Amino acid sequence: MRKSINLLGILAGLGFGALSFLAIYSLGVLAYRDSAMPVLALVSVSDADPETETTAAALAAEEEPEIAKANTIDPAEGNDDGTSAAETVVLAKAETDPEPVAETDPETEAEPDTETDEVDGPYADLDDDAVIEIEPVPYPEDVTYHDAPEPTADEIAEITAKVAAIEAKLPALDYEAARHDPIHYPPLIETASSAECLACHKEIATHEPRKTSLAGVEAQQSLAWYQTLDTYSGPQADFHWRHLESDYAKEVMKLECNFCHKGNDLREESPDMMPTRAAFSALVTPEFTLRKMVNPSETCLMCHGSYPAEIMDMEGDWHELKVDLEYAEAPNGCLSCHAETYRTERHNVNYLNAAAIEEIARNGTSDSCYGCHGGRAWYRTSYPYARHPWPDMDDSEIPQWAVDRPTESKPEHQLSSAP
């Protein structure tokens, strides 16, 4: 008796499964009818059900007569011309496909659209030998730009003495003693010169990238991303060298090692556990972030943030926006607004050569500005630069984005005195 019940249950289950399959399959037929997918895929799974196959052929006849004709061929009999049913399906499918686009003859290839080709720039319509006279861009009144000052003779002598003292004690230092030297954390790190750092870390200035990558690609046969920029020339170079010693870095910047390496407590690596002050007394904006040897949001972000289009009530990327602002005689679209009108008090800090930056901007393209203001963006946010008041600035209403912005640079970045 129990075996009979089990057998009946199995048969009932099989019957229910078959009905479910037919229901799902019917829904699939209707779905395929209204979709853009070829009916061929539907027919290929219906060989065991003549009724469903007829329905599929009827559906195909409504949309693609040639495909329907192929689908109704008996696979066993084939076609009158000797081809099999499968071959006919393929041929019918090919007849319904669009004609392939012929390859363009290189000699008759149309010229690229200069309005949409972002790499062409403001010189796209000029001959290679065209002589261009850039329209003079005036400097704003009552604003003076200063390069970062060079060290004085007294400062050089002091740095030389500090380096000599470090080199004198090196032979007696083991790794742990050197690692915990006071120069590695505040307050000494705040005034340490690059020369003092390089007394021990000489490899930073001489290190070179691999000649061949781990994948076997030779450096001289490939381009790093920074080699594609107008501001870089020469072979691939080390990260630190590019920021400290490259021609362009020396021209527009004056970075010291402690610009990025602010120092940290090597025992705790926390700004709230410094050996020189009470615990948990760090500033609201501490010198460094927990367990970070470098705080990117206070260093890297300054030059590698995103383009702040929303602040300027602009929509889109700069390479799209500049098309309507630049032409051959005025190739720097940034100066359309920032030459005399908005945010003209800028770059006067001890890690930038403001005068050199302004000269480059007025005699080149906007790439020199965009490079540090979105063109080399490693972050999705932009740096909240200090909003220095500029001449004729309307301060009657502060924009929402500037409500919490400081009005001067951080003390450690301010120029001590103007030349």
From TrEMBL:
Transmembrane segments: none
Region feature (Disordered): 94-124, 396-419
Domain of life: Bacteria
Composition bias type Acidic residues, residue spans: 97-124
Name under which the protein is recorded: Doubled CXXCH motif domain-containing protein
The species this protein was found in: Paracoccus methylovorus
